Amino acid sequence: MTKILVVDDSPSEKHLITNYLSNSGYHVINANNAQEALEQTSLQKPDIIVTDVIMPGMNGFELCRILKKDPETKDIRIVICTSKNQNIDRLWGMKSGADIYITKPFTEEDISRAIQSLI
């Protein structure tokens, strides 16, 4: 079973994404911020990470760069799911190591399609 880590400081957004993924049969774990995501990644070894960008402390772009530089986590697929919808944001996300960049608001189909393309 594919294990997905959802990282978002917004409880409602995290809950929505978690429900979408759980309903699709994925094993979902959560983190409230990027630092917690690094800890969960070390402990849980997720296959895919879905992360917001705008979070207190370390942002999602920084999280991507740290994960992609580490030999232990460099192969984890990353989906950025954010309200930052400018072309420069998308470019920055992809340069940081994201595999897919989704902007909010999103649908269950958007999330599902992104995850399926990475499996």
What's a quick, concise take on this entry?
This protein has a single domain, classed as Response regulator (Rossmann fold, 3-Layer(aba) Sandwich). The protein has a 5-stranded parallel β-sheet with strand order 2-1-3-4-5, sandwiched between helices. The protein is built from 5 helices and 5 strands.
Question: What would the keywords be for this entry?
Answer:
single chain; 119 residues; alpha/beta; Rossmann fold; 5-stranded parallel β-sheet; 5 strands
Question: What is the topology?
Answer:
Elements: E1 3-7, H1 11-23, E2 27-31, H2 34-44, E3 48-51, H3 60-69, E4 77-82, H4 87-96, E5 100-103, H5 108-118
Parallel strand pairs: 1-2, 1-3, 3-4, 4-5
Helix pairs in contact: 2-3
Low-confidence stretches: none
- Distance N terminus to C terminus? 11 Å
Number of strands: 5
Our Rg estimate from Cα atoms comes to 13 Å
Strand percentage: 15-25%
